[in-house]
Write a structure and sequence with these properties.
Among the domains are: 175 residues, 3-Layer(bba) Sandwich (FAD/NAD(P)-binding domain), CATH 3.50.50.60; 81 residues, no CATH class. 33% of the residues lie in helices and 23% in strands. The chain contains 13 helices and 20 strands. It has a 7-stranded mixed beta sheet, with helices on both faces. The protein binds flavin-adenine dinucleotide.
Length: 433
């Protein structure tokens, strides 16, 4: 039987394995659980685990909702309208709808109307390619006006892309505005429920999931991929590298020109604290952008405004996070030093907040959290096929112009599965019956 290997057990690797589950599939994952960036922490005493980084779905996430239906998980979905606001120089102002924009106190009426018109235009315009020729920085500065740029957009671009903020193209911004909804979705038991249901389907179909196994090198001999994890070795006919792009480029010795072409594509990291608090931190607000480019975090998300706190030992859960490069001074701080900075800033936002409110804190970080979409990025996206026959790539840097997310990771997984399935059919290899 034809053997299909998938290196990486995040959402994209899992999706490939699920859609090809009627063939002989094996996922090899270096971590001790599946889910990649969407994996979780099991906290003793809590009914539900918590994702290491803030995770929710949009109700427009079509691949996820299709899978939810296929897996029979509809009844477990939690769908709620949420509120988003921004914090600027001591003030919290709601900014998540046309009405809230009209009332937005931090800008003059003329600036508010101008911002509303640009956002409406972006929502109506389907041609994103024209926006990739300019940077989001100059597009927003020119179109939204000086005040709106300085108060709303510049701090957010810096918080999301750090030093690289000025390089990001405006199509990325188009992708952020275009499909987003106020209504968000989560699932009972957290993303773990979804991931474990998916992996059970894979295993029930005799698919294999191998954890705690880091692949070090891959070669191809006599048409087979030789996958080397040091003490364990595997052989496959088809191979999907569902790992970060730079890892894929290191694992296989691709032709020099292929490597050189994709090496400049970069991502930056993210660091997050999960804080379990004895008291509510934000009043009804789920998502609070911090519009201060010098703040030690760019966002606070109060998860327990989307999901009932009873699942977390009656604690109020907030994620506090920031995207940054690993040579940023904030990345170099110890966990304790960073927490100190965060606590003092949290006090500015909510003057009643005290360190004693923190019941538990968890620190998570990833070096590969946010791809950088630069000018004319559509010309640089790595394809899912590689120059090596039967070797495929699935990673966040291929998602464009949408911001990376589990929905699009599933979409890429489906595309790869279709290609492999078609190839197998051509070679008269059929699914198990
Ligand atoms: C801060 C943050 C917030 C986010 N919020 C959301 C959200 O709200 N909603 C949403 O849908 N998405 C969100 N995302 C994005 C989402 O998590 C990712 O888009 C998605 O998980 C990417 O999946 P992936 O499989 O492509 O990559 P990854 O999740 O990175 O998976 C790659 C896997 O490969 C494994 N691996 C790496 N090297 C090797 C090796 N040599 N051998 C074996 N295994 C290896 C890794 O351990 C990992 O499990 C967020 C991401 C971040 C960082």
């Amino acid at each position: 039987m034809v053997k299909i290997g998938i290196v990486g057990g995040g959402f994209s690797g899992l999706a490939v394995a699920y859609f090809l589950r009627e063939h002989d599939v094996t996922i090899i994952e270096s971590g001790n659980a599946l889910g990649g960036l969407a994996s979780w922490i099991d906290v003793p005493g809590w009914e539900w685990p918590i994702e290491k980084f803030v995770h929710h779905w949009f109700v427009t996430d079509k691949w996820i909702f299709q899978l939810i239906r296929e897996l029979g998980l509809e009844r477990k979905m939690i769908i709620r309208d949420t509120r988003s606001s921004c914090y600027y120089k001591g003030e919290i102002a709601e900014l998540d709808s046309a009405v809230s924009l009209l009332k937005f106190p931090l800008l003059r009426l003329l600036d508010r109307l101008r911002m509303g018109a640009i956002l409406a235009l972006l929502r109506l315009d389907r041609n994103y390619l024209k926006y990739e020729k300019i940077t989001a920085y100059s597009f927003l500065k020119k179109t939204m006006g000086k005040k709106a740029f300085e108060i709303v957009w510049e701090p957010l671009l810096i918080g999301k892309f750090g030093r690289d903020a000025e390089k990001i193209n405006a199509a990325w911004f188009w992708g952020r505005v275009h499909p987003r909804t106020k209504s968000l979705a989560y699932i009972e038991g957290g993303f773990k429920t979804f991931i474990e249901t998916l992996s059970k389907k894979i295993r029930d179909n005799k698919g294999k999931v191998i954890l705690n196994t880091q692949i070090k090198k891959i070669t191809k001999k006599w048409g087979k991929f030789m996958v080397d994890a040091g003490n364990k070795k595997f052989k496959f006919d088809y191979l999907v590298l569902a790992v970060p792009l730079h890892v894929a480029l290191e694992l296989y010795s691709f032709p020099k020109e292929y490597k050189e072409k994709y090496k400049p594509i970069r991502s930056i990291g993210a660091q997050y604290f999960i804080l379990a608090l004895k008291k509510q931190f934000l009043d009804e607000i789920y998502w609070l952008n911090i519009n201060d480019k010098n703040a030690p975090f760019v966002v606070i998300v109060e998860h327990t405004h989307l999901v009932d706190k009873k699942h977390y030992g009656d604690k109020h859960i907030i994620w506090v996070g920031k995207y940054l490069d690993y040579d940023d001074p904030l990345w170099k701080l110890s966990e304790a030093e960073l927490l100190e900075k965060i606590i003092s800033y949290l006090k500015k936002i909510n003057p009643e907040f005290k360190r004693e409110w923190i019941n538990k804190s968890y620190f998570t970080r990833s070096k590969n959290a946010q791809p950088l979409m630069t000018i004319n990025y559509s010309r640089h996206i790595p394809k899912i096929e590689t120059p090596i026959k039967n070797l495929y790539l699935a990673n966040m840097n291929q998602i464009y112009p949408w911001d990376r997310g589990t929905n699009n990771a599933v979409g890429i997984g489906l595309d790869i599965a279709k290609k492999i399935e078609a190839d197998l059919k051509r070679n008269k290899v059929y699914r198990r019956v």
